[in-house]
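Researcher: Please predict.
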Amino acid sequence: MHVHPIPPEKATGEVKAHYDAAIADQGYVPNQELLFGLNPAAKAAWRQLVRAISSRMDDRRYELVTLAVANYLRCNYCVSVHSSVVMEEGIFDRHQVEALARDYRTCEFLRPAETAIMAFAEQVAADANRVTPEQVEDLRAHGLSEEEIFDVTLAAAARTFYSKVLNAMGAEPDDAYADTNDLLELVELRPRT
């Protein structure tokens, strides 16, 4: 990491509580939690935001948006963690996760609406001020309601924030995700849109 988080053994107060919650949840303090030990209130706000967004989406859609953005932004931490999540939850298998990393646009197991959602999420991450009415209309044409379009936008923008924080601070995926830490190598470099 580019910054020096407080080691768990030296943590006190709010930081210790933050680390203790991570240990209770995952059995260790993940690198992202070490990083956010520098501002636990920001992590608490992040969790609240994610709950507000993801509670209105099914898990598959939320994870597709997340993977589209994380792959596009080349956030190894987010790609690794969320690839692991979708495999553990049975949303996708390893072969499918690898195909998504290579190029979601060629994945025959995705429904057309899902491919459109991933393309839209990627556009939000790449250059949100260039989202066009036609791109939004494309989501409507695939059956998304106004609320669903907004929720996809919220999920993409939120993931953009989080991925950029982890990337900027050099947070590496944890050893617990060793099985998916190599997936970023498969991500096709796409031109900026």
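Model: DSSP finds nine helices and no strands in the chain.
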